[in-house]
Every structure is written in C-alpha cells, then in structure tokens.
Design brief:
- The complex is a heterodimer of chains A (375) and B (153).
- Chain A is 35% helix and 20% strand.
- Chain A has 375 residues and is α/β, with parallel strands linked by helices.
- Chain A has a domain at 5-117 and 211-224: Thiolase/Chalcone synthase (Peroxisomal Thiolase, Chain A, domain 1, 3-Layer(aba) Sandwich).
- Chain A is globular, with a radius of gyration of 19 Å.
- By secondary structure, chain B is mainly β.
- Chain B has one domain: OB fold (Dihydrolipoamide Acetyltransferase, E2P), CATH 2.40.50.140.
- Chain B has one helix spanning 29-40, and strands spanning 45-48, 55-57, 72-75, 80-90, 96-107, 112-113, 115-120, 129-134, 147-152.
- In chain B, a hairpin with a 5-residue loop joins strand 4 and strand 5 (96-107).
- The longest helix of chain B has 12 residues, at 29-40.
- Chain B is extended and about 65 Å long.
- The chains are: A alpha/beta (375), B mainly beta (153).
- At the A-B interface, helix 1, helix 4, helix 5 and strand 5 of A face helix 1, strand 4, strand 5, strand 6 and strand 7 of B.
- Strand 5 (194-197) of chain A pairs antiparallel with strand 4 (80-90) of chain B.
Chain lengths: 375, 153
C-alpha cells in the first residue's frame, strides 16, 4: 500500500474579475496565510516542500519560479515550480510525500490574469508557429471547430449546451467565489453574439483572478499531529495529441486516461460512484465532452449539471477561468464541500468527490483527482 | 490578519505598464521543411511511420505511437473532407470582425490529423468533399499561407 495522502488545509483569496489592491506576490501570500491557518501549520517549520503552478507568459516575468519562495513561506527551503494546471502540481505533492521527500507539502496556484493586457497574444503564442498560427485560428476558433464536430458526432444540440450554461450561471449565484453568476433564459444564451460559431458568447468562461493554496500531508503525519484531512484516493494526469492532430473528439484521451488511472488507484468503478463532480467547463460543450470521457452519457450529464451534482460551484462558466489555478479551484470546491464548508452552494454532506481539469486550447493535457472523507 | 495595511481608496492604486518585446524566427525542422516545400510545389505532405504505417498530418519527424524516426514523406490525396467548421467573428487580436472568417478542419483518407485552414468559396459545410486552393506559383513563399484554403469540389 502506498503512503496515504490527505489535504489538511485550504486557503484562497480573490475570486473576482480583477484584483487591484494587491500584487501577484501579495495575493499568493494572503492565500498561503489562510491555508496555513486552516491547517494549523507553520510554513517555516512544518512544511517540507513548496510547489507553485505558474507559467512565465501569464506572469509577464521571466523565470518566475525564482520569485516564488518568499510569499509562500518557502525562503531557503525546497521550492519548485510546475508550469501546469494546479492538479498536476498536486500530483507532484503526492509524489513528494509518497517518495519520502516530504511529509507536508504546500501547493500554490493563482490567476492574476487581469494584469495581462494582451491575453490574446499569450494564447496565440501557444499555437504551432509553422503549421497553425499563420491562419489566425486562435484558441476560440479551435474551440468552435471542435464544438461543431463534437455536436455533429454526439447529437448534442444548441439547446443542450444552452441548458448547461443556464444551469451553471444560476448555480454560481449561490457561490461567494463566483464572479459570473446570473439568471439567463435559454433563448438569451442561444441568441448571444457569436465568437466562432457555433461557439457563442456565453459558451466561453470569462477570466477571473484568485490565489489558492492547498496543504497536503501524509496520513501518518496527519494522524500523529491530530489533523482531520480530506483523503486523496487517486490522482493522475495525461497529455495526448490535440483533436486536430488525431485525438479523439468524443473522448479526449487526456481526460479518459487520467480518469481511468484515478479509478484504479481509488478502487472505484465509475463517475456515478462520486457524490459530486467538479469537471472542466472552460467551454460549455467541453463539460459534456469531458463527462462523456468519464462515461456519463449526454442525458444523464445534463440532468446532473441541472441538479447541481456536477459543478455545484457553477464551474468556470459561473466562477470564471483562473488559468493555471483552474484545477486548484475545482479541488478547493471539492474539499470545501467534503468538509461542509462550501457556503451558499454547500450540497448536503457529500463523502466523495472527483475533480477533472483541462489546460485549455491548444493543449491536450488534463488531470483528475478523487477525494473522500470519513473512510 | 496577514496584511495589515490594505489599499482602501481607488485613488491610491498604482500600477506599472511594461511589455515583453521578444521576436523569434522559428526553425521549420525536418518534417516542417518537407511540408512547406511541398506547399510550394502544390502538394500537402504527410509523414508516414515505417514501423506502424500511420500517416501524420501535419507531418512529424517521429511516430507518436512507435517513437520511431519518420523518414517517409508523401503527398496526401487531393480530396479532403471537412470534419469541422467555425465562423469566426472575433479576430486573432481579439477584435470584432465586420465579416466572419470561415475556418475548416480538413481530414484526408488514411491520414491521422488534418489541417486547420480557411474555407474558400460557397457551399463548404461539415461533410463537404473539398480540394486545396493554392496561391499562384510565383507568389508561394514556403508558408502555410501558400494555401488559400479549401474549396468545395
């Protein structure tokens, strides 16, 4: 049996479209301070390893990892940067603990994306310069293309994706961390201005800013120090070929393979075995595609979203897209739900949760994590 | 309270505007050279793995499945199928367009992947059989834009 790992503390700051009163580093400091208070740990003595999930272009600062240690309490300590989604950073934390490198690990991820005046330029630079970029088909065009193919092959209709948008926006109204909640009529969603038709305005998550920190510990350490934790039952990430390079448009492999690995680690049989799921919805149709990837058919998927079992937070469509902190936000929402501390969007007393992330176009990278309490 | 002094007046907010002024000249590479020179000759070139026989477009110099080097590059057929289509009303820099740009993702028989490019002319829809439309020979420069896009056959 590998070493058990659990979440012993979470902290966050922000969760709004723009944060103007603190700098990126201060935002990280605020989130870290709250997480360490929640976990009742002193980062200068109790935490063995610090991980920050960040990407230089989003920071506007070369070699950003050199600027990370101070504000998370990691000065003169082992600190590393994972330039990827937050759940992948958490995967490194699990490895640090299971390998015996560390007993307690802090994982930070943030979005200070309103500071990026040329967001499109950053996204455009992610496109292949030889085979792709010159046509000007940016991230949203790729999404529009994929959406058209997915809808055609899956039978998903405009009405189906509009129902997803409507449900998530409505759900976000009860989440204090959500910036984009609202009451929308189906017609309003379906008649919205086009971005890259069939992709319309409300099909895309708007950007938001937040700092998040999650503190992980070995279950042995948590037990010894009398900390209640949320168990990490499985965690995996995968990178595969984007759909336009031959990836599967119905079941993107990054999602289906990461999910399959997590199920094996957790000893679970399927998505239906979780009380709640926080699933990537960077674009409305991606939520249905990702649910299809984990074995949830369309009809059940829409019902689960409308009932709030999927994305009780309102997802990225309701909360806002947090770039590399998007996966961390999903884990944060799951951890808060499992501890009964989600606030207005608390969904009963769930015992198990699954979070699944996608790193956005043009990537084919995603991660999944299974969590539980009261095992 | 982690930070005791917080900014509480908008008038006190300060920021600094700067930019990252980098320029690049991207090497096309072994497979990229084949592809771009193929476009200059009016051909769309894919790479074929000598191990599993899988053909890749855009071409790669290595097989995704076998991790073998690829050294066979051949033109795909002249017929493609539109597998996806989008009408972009927002431009590459985020500007709203007065007239939409029509993009297609075109697949070719027996080839993994395909090309994202423009739809040319009327009647192009998902499922349409299309053919590439190249720029005049004298105007080709060895770039993806040597191709105008794909038109209905």
């Amino acid at each position: 049996m590998p070493e058990g790992v659990c979440i012993i503390g979470v902290g966050y700051e922000g969760f709004r479209p723009t944060i103007t009163d603190v700098s990126t580093r201060e935002l990280m400091f605020l989130a870290a301070s709250k997480a360490y208070a929640d976990a009742s740990v002193d980062p200068r003595t109790d935490i063995d390893s610090f991980i920050c999930c960040t990407e230089d272009f989003w920071e506007g600062w070369s070699i950003t990892d050199e600027m990370v240690p101070d504000q998370v309490g990691g000065a003169r300590r082992p600190v590393c940067t994972v330039p990827a989604d937050g759940i992948i950073g958490m995967g490194h934390a699990v490895m640090h603990i299971r390998s015996g490198v560390a007993d307690v690990v802090s994982v930070e991820a943030h979005s200070k994306v309103a500071d990026v005046l040329d967001k499109r330029a950053v996204e455009n630079l992610a496109l292949d310069p030889v085979y792709h970029r010159q046509t000007g088909a940016g991230s949203d065009v790729l999404a529009g293309l994929e959406m058209s193919a997915f809808m055609r092959r899956s039978g998903v209709t405009r009405d189906d994706v509009s129902r997803i948008v409507k449900a998530e926006k409505a759900r976000a109204l009860s989440n204090g961390r959500a910036s984009y909640g609202g009451t929308l009529e189906l017609k309003e969603v379906s008649d919205a201005e086009p971005i890259a038709a069939p992709l319309l305005k409300y099909d895309k998550a708007e950007f938001a800013e937040a700092g998040t920190v999650v503190v992980f510990a070995s279950e042995r350490w948590a037990k010894k120090n009398k900390k209640d934790g949320v168990s990490v039952d499985g965690l995996a990430w995968r990178s595969s070929a984007p759909w336009f390079e031959g990836g599967d448009i119905m079941r993107p492999e990054y999602a289906s393979e990461a999910f399959r690995s997590v199920m094996k680690q957790a000893g679970r049989r399927g998505a239906d075995s979780f009380d709640l799921l926080e699933i990537d919805d960077t674009y409305s149709y991606k939520l249905l595609q990702h649910l299809s990837s984990v074995g949830v058919p369309k009809a059940s998927a829409i019902k689960m979203v409308e009932e709030g079992r999927v994305n009780p937070s309102g997802g990225s469509l309701g909360t806002g897209h947090l770039i590399e902190a998007t996966g961390s936000h999903r884990v944060l929402e799951c951890a808060l739900q499992l501890r009964g501390r989600a606030g207005g969007n608390q969904r009963g007393k769930p015992g198990t949760a699954l979070a699944l992330s996608w790193r956005g176009n043009p990537t084919a990278t995603g991660a999944a994590i299974a969590l539980s309490v009261g095992r | 309270m982690p930070l005791r002094d917080r900014v509480t007046s908008v008038g006190d907010l300060r920021s600094w505007t700067d930019q990252i002024p980098f320029r690049y000249e991207y090497t096309a590479g072994v497979a990229g050279e084949r592809f771009l020179r193929g476009l200059m000759d009016g051909r769309i070139v894919a790479g074929e793995c000598g191990g599993c026989g899988k053909r890749f477009l855009p071409p790669k110099a290595y097989c995704t499945d076998c991790f073998r080097a690829i050294d066979r590059f051949d033109a795909v057929g002249q017929d493609g199928i539109v597998a996806a289509m989008a009408e972009a009303w927002v431009g590459f820099q985020g500007e709203r367009l007065a007239r939409p740009k029509r993009y297609v993702f075109v697949e070719f028989d027996g080839v993994t992947g395909g090309l994202v490019h423009f739809a040319v002319g009327p009647g192009v829809r998902v499922g349409s059989r299309v053919a590439p439309r190249f720029r005049p020979l004298s105007k080709r420069r060895g770039s993806l834009l040597d191709l105008h896009g794909f038109a209905k056959k």
